[in-house]
Amino acid sequence: MVKNTFTLSNQFDPFNLFQQQIYYNILVFLVKYTITVFKITIGVIMTEEQEFVEKCLAETERFPISFAESRVFSKIDENIEMKSGQIEIANVTYERGFNVRVILDGAWGYSTSSRLVEKDISQVVKQAIDVAKASALKLRKPIELTEEPIIIDTYKTPYKINPFDVDFKEKVELLTLADSTMKEAGEQIKVTESLINSYNVLLFFGNSEGSRITQNQTYVGCQVRATAIGTEIQRRTSQDYQMRGFEFVKDFNFEEEAKIVANEAILLVTEAENCPNEKSAFILEPFQLGLTIHESTGHPTELDRVMGFEADFAGTSFLTTDKLGTDYQYGSEIINIICDPNMPNVNGHYKYDDEGVKAKKFHVIENGIFKNYMTDRETAKEVGYEHSFGNARIANYNRIPMIRMSNLYLEPDPKGPKDIEELLSETKKGVYGLTWKSHSIDDKRINFQFSTELGWLIKNGEKIKPLKNVCYNAATPEFWANCDMITKKSRIYGMGPICGKGVPMQGMWVSHGGGWARFQDINIFSG
Amino acid sequence: MEINTDQLIEKANYAINEGKKLGMEGVNINSELNRILSTRFANSSIHQNFVDFETKFQITAIQGKKNVIITTNSIEEKDILLALNKAAKIIVYLPDDPEFPGVMKDVQKYPKIKINDPKAKNLAPSDVADKIIEGMNKSHELSPKVQSVSGSFNLKDGVNFFLSSEGSENLTPATSIISTINIMSNDGHGESRSNASVGSRRFLDLRFKEESENAAERSLLGLNAQKIEPKSYPAILDYQAVADQVFHIGIAMSARYVLDQASFVKDKVGEQVFATSLSVINDPHDPDFFSANPIDSEGVPTQKYTLINNGVVENFAHSRLTASKMGAKISNGSACILFGTSIPLPFASKILPGNKSRQQLIEEMDDGLLVTNFHYSNFIDMPRGTETGMTKDGLFIIKNGEIVGSAKNMRFTDSITNMFSKAEISSETVQTPNFYGYAYDVPAIRIKELNFSSKTDH
């Protein structure tokens, strides 16, 4: 029995249907009236892009569509990367365009163009109509969407220093500092890498229901990486992305991070031993934990994937819809995995998703029980949710909105140890793994094998030996069922636009993390 | 909306002239205008279609020993000027890279290769839908156990235009069509999935219906899979599994990863690393090959070259920068855009065929596995060439020269060099595209063994 988190659709009732129709007509009238007033009131301050969206929506009204939405999307992506003392990449990408999506005869139609010119609107809309007609040739069932509140809002993620206003000079200086710091750590350091990435997305959204949203997101990312050569080749990396301005780059402390990664890379090629092959307690710091959440919790709870829409490329999911609302045991009782795009500054932050649905904080896993999927309006409707959880996102103007992770994390345990030191002190024997090195997971998201850049052998509560080539292999539900300790202290890491999904591929920016967590009886080995 | 090539050429010349006015020593324009038809189909229905009119306009500004790349998708003059001014502002702060090769002074000559379908511009979304529906119907006709057809279809048709301030110029009309088809069969006791990837430059040549049917047959053959124990098995890697491995070998053969100390063949030029039967070439000049292209992403003419000759590592894939850093005279025209960045890759790799047919390889195997494809295979440790990944799309058990059943998917953990230390190469090759937009021409290969490290329930 499904409970709490969503309501089943109403049973068919002709009287209710009649009443609903009246209410619906009144609502449509009020919405149109409100939009007209809105347009008249702010018409003088409407941006060109907002006007463009209005014109696209107006053009769709010439056709017998049941729904329409339009977006004007622009992005700036600036990358500067230094490798071994030379600037290897200095790139800036400006992209913009618009799209129109309609539902006609129960089918989606979508068309996009990079040319933001008014005379193209009618052709793009016509293409969307033609596409819908083509889609309707082979339709499983008519597309239905959840009803969502109408939103008229403008939102800009806050920052103190616009990263695009900062001269490259300052950026080059920071990367040069990181580079020289890594090299100074020792002769074993053979390759040094560092980067600063600044990203801005400006999205104007409108739909035929009356929502009009402008959302402006800016994030920055920093990374340092040192590769050392000794008995073998090993690397250490430190990186983070946040939805902030250049102040985050200043806070990142390139010099300190460079020192740490270089010294640890040297440690890996001088003192570290191979990871033992055994079943053991395994402890993850928030970055690697985040990667594990991303692959084994995030992807299998994307409802489009569950429904087979991504079967050809990304795969499907073991968390099939028959498990929803059945108290399916996903992990131990201390596992609470939360999706919260509302959290400020994290890389997966937004106020509205790209279907105009307000971002919600919700449990994907609650006390170890599978609770909810991430949804868009279409898939939410299909499984009987009253509303979408607001997880539809687009990576560019010419990409379809898809269900994407945003900010997904493991909630800290208020009864757990204070921090990693306290957690380690309570561990008699185990391995502590730090930072992603490689990952692989099957197409249903059960069997995974990940490895970390660095490990520590833990004995009697202490880090006694550095370990290299640390791999762990597990099945998703067993892995999370074996989690017995999560710290109170937590950290969320931004992961840049690394999450790939869809064909054509869409790279999406996400954040993950949570408390430091310990898992018992994990199959660890050297690989 | 028409693809206006004249306008693109005019704007490229405009950008070069304006760049010169800003004092830039060299300016390269790498541009595209495309119409894209894209479809996501799932559960035997068309889920989302879209049409895109795409513009790419990449400006590389070069000043002495440094360069900056500004990309825009607008060819309006004000946006081009904005991009050029940004480039001019940035480049002054960049330090010189003594090994950067600078402006490409010689006027380049490009091979003439036809890689477009003149009929593609007239295709409508309904033509694509018809093609997909035909494949879906064909799959379902095979058996009621075929339950759903999913996949994607992407057709890109337009022009690529390169122009340099030194006079190198190349206009290539280009069409690419890539589709994947995933078939799910279910007999009431369990499901089985199989996948096919098809690519073509010509819409009518796309083997969508045929490969849908093949994938459906494989998915039916995969039903009633049994759980077998993970260990080392003699194995035949089928086309898609080989293509997956060729991609990883290609990464290792990229001079970028060699310079990063990340490649397991970084110091192996001239050494026997693989079985003597394995030879791999990069052949971007074969007009019947999906990966054919006269020009790389830096404006360098592509070259046909040998990567692995009878198991011996012979050449790496180079961009202009890596060629300069490694002391090669010139780039071999292998720069391509991957993950938003220019990386040298042997994007037109072909494994040279052997003498035995794929069927013979199966018939000569006493006890082993036929691996259709891999899922999410990744390096565990690139410098050592160790990898892990899952089998997918059909793992079949071979006994006494026949396929006798299917096995549930397993995870392999092995090194590429171990995998291909012995290799019997089949005589038939198949062009297998990947999701990066390139295709490899590959045979099925019998390898000595593949080490499986864990198993699954599906």
3D structure, described in words:
The complex is a heterodimer of chains A (527) and B (458). Chain A has 2 domains: 257 residues, 2-Layer Sandwich (PmbA/TldD fold), CATH 3.30.2290; 254 residues, no CATH class. Chain A is built from 11 helices and 23 strands. In chain A, helix 4 packs parallel to helix 6. Chain B has 458 residues and is α+β, with helices and mostly antiparallel strands. Chain B has a 6-stranded antiparallel beta sheet. In chain B, strands 7-14-15-17-19 form a 5-stranded mixed β-barrel. A 4-stranded antiparallel beta sheet of chain B has the order 10-9-8-13, with no helix packed on it. The mean pLDDT of chain B is 95. Chain B has 2 domains: 214 residues, PmbA/TldD fold, CATH 3.30.2290.10; 234 residues, no CATH class. Classes of the chains: A alpha+beta (527), B alpha+beta (458). At the A-B interface, strand 1, strand 2, strand 3, helix 3 and helix 4 of A face strand 1, strand 2, strand 3, helix 2 and helix 3 of B.
- Write the CATH architecture name of the largest domain in chain A: 2-Layer Sandwich
Count of individual helical segments of chain A: 11
Number of beta-strand segments of chain A: 23
Assembly type of the shown chains?
heterodimer
User: Termini of chain B, distance in Å?
Assistant: 47 Å
E-strand count of chain B: 19
Q: What shape does the CA trace of chain A take? A: globular
Give the arrangement of secondary structure elements:
The complex is a heterodimer of chains A (527) and B (458).
Chain A: H1 14-42, H2 48-60, E1 67-83, E2 86-104, E3 107-113, H3 121-135, E4 152-156, H4 168-184, E5 189-207, E6 212-229, E7 233-242, H5 246-252, H6 254-270, E8 273-274, E9 278-284, H7 286-298, H8 303-306, E10 337-339, E11 362-366, E12 369-370, H9 377-383, E13 392-393, E14 402-403, E15 407-410, H10 420-425, E16 429-441, E17 447-459, E18 462-468, E19 470-475, H11 476-481, E20 483-494, E21 499-501, E22 506-508, E23 511-526
Parallel strand pairs in A: 4-6, 8-18, 9-16, 15-23
Antiparallel strand pairs in A: 1-2, 1-5, 2-3, 5-6, 6-7, 9-23, 10-11, 10-15, 11-12, 13-14, 16-17, 17-18, 17-19, 19-23, 20-23, 21-22
Helix pairs in contact in A: 2-3, 4-6
Chain B: H1 5-21, E1 26-42, E2 45-63, E3 66-72, H2 77-91, H3 125-142, E4 146-164, E5 169-186, E6 191-200, H4 208-221, E7 232-237, H5 239-252, H6 255-259, E8 280-282, E9 305-309, E10 312-313, H7 320-325, E11 335-338, E12 341-344, E13 349-351, H8 358-363, E14 367-381, E15 386-399, E16 402-407, E17 410-415, H9 416-419, E18 423-433, E19 439-455
Parallel strand pairs in B: 7-14
Antiparallel strand pairs in B: 1-2, 1-4, 2-3, 4-5, 5-6, 7-19, 8-9, 8-13, 9-10, 11-12, 14-15, 15-16, 15-17, 17-19, 18-19
Helix pairs in contact in B: 1-2, 3-4
